[in-house]
Specification:
This protein has 267 residues and is mainly α. The protein has 13 helices and 4 strands. The protein has helices at residues 9-22, 27-34, 38-46, 53-63, 67-71, 75-79, 84-88, 103-117, 125-143, 164-173, 205-218, 223-230, 234-237; strands at residues 152-155, 158-161, 177-184, 187-194.
Length: 267
């Protein structure tokens, strides 16, 4: 059955989202029930992914809808009403994977970035923070696992990892890094120089690969350029000022920010 002629992907996504929430299910609940990945469900609900006949049948059985009802032009009007299930689920859904800071991994990633970038005159605190942010969020989008587990807060000048001040202070006390204040085109710039090498044995090949890609892409950008770029990333855009940035928002990215290829066969 070709459903494209009757409903757009966006309309299908909206209807599936509504039915899922009426059942009180998370995206992961639905994914497990019908045998798809959670990222496939995210892309389906966003309208970026279609479904084949078998998947549509599985959705029908899981969410309890009839084909004729689902395809009806009046579906949205008939389904949106004072449903108690919807009211119960009006609060934000629980995170699927709550980040938990791995201090040693964070320090190791920081040291590795500094090893590769500390000699570049543009890499002060602002650029460093953004390199950490994109390493963490790109890794999560690709592998659905946390790299460092750091929480990032949306502040005026961009995403900033929490507990960074205390981590940097501890690393300076342990003589792992040195802080320098320099002049960069008439501006005061705080820089960090590594005094020890990162332990690459503690880093997965996939982690190093993601970090290397971020460094290759962005480490030559100045503070203004990389800040402007981070302010157009979906996790940043969708977060209120002063709030923690939810890693799950990485799955709502579009090009050029998305680092994962989503297609109809992504499961």
């Amino acid at each position: 059955m070709d459903m494209k002629d009757r409903l757009s992907r966006q309309e299908m996504g909206q209807r599936i989202t509504l039915l899922r929430k009426r059942k009180g299910w998370s995206q992961e609940d639905l994914a497990k029930t019908i045998g798809l990945s959670r990222t496939s469900i995210v892309q389906l609900e966003l309208g970026n992914r279609g479904v084949d006949v078998m998947e549509f049948q599985n959705l029908s059985m899981a969410l309890g809808f009839a084909l004729d009802e689902f395809m009806s032009k009046d579906f949205m009007q008939s389904e949106v009403h004072d449903d108690p299930v919807i009211k119960e689920k009006s609060k934000p859904e629980e995170r699927i994977s709550v980040p938990k800071l791995n201090v040693e991994k964070f320090k190791n990633v920081l040291l590795y970035i500094l090893e590769r970038c500390a000699g570049k005159p543009n890499v002060g605190e602002t650029v460093l923070y953004k390199l950490l942010y994109f390493s963490d969020f790109n890794y999560y989008e690709l592998y659905e696992q946390h790299l460092t587990g750091a929480n990032y807060k949306k502040l005026q000048y961009g995403p900033v990892p929490q507990k960074l001040t205390s981590i940097l202070a501890g690393m300076m006390e342990e003589k792992e890094i040195e802080q320098m204040v320099t002049d960069y085109y008439g501006l005061v710039q705080t820089r960090y120089i590594p005094l020890k090498k990162a332990d690459l044995q503690q880093m997965k090949a996939s982690e190093k690969e993601v970090i290397d890609r971020v460094i290759d892409q962005m480490s030559d950008w100045n503070a203004t350029a990389i800040s402007d770029y981070s302010h157009k990333d979906m996790p940043w855009l969708a977060t209120q000022d002063g709030q923690d940035i939810d890693y799950e928002l990485a799955f709502y990215r579009e090009l050029p920010y998305s680092v994962r290829v989503y297609d109809d066969g992504d499961e």
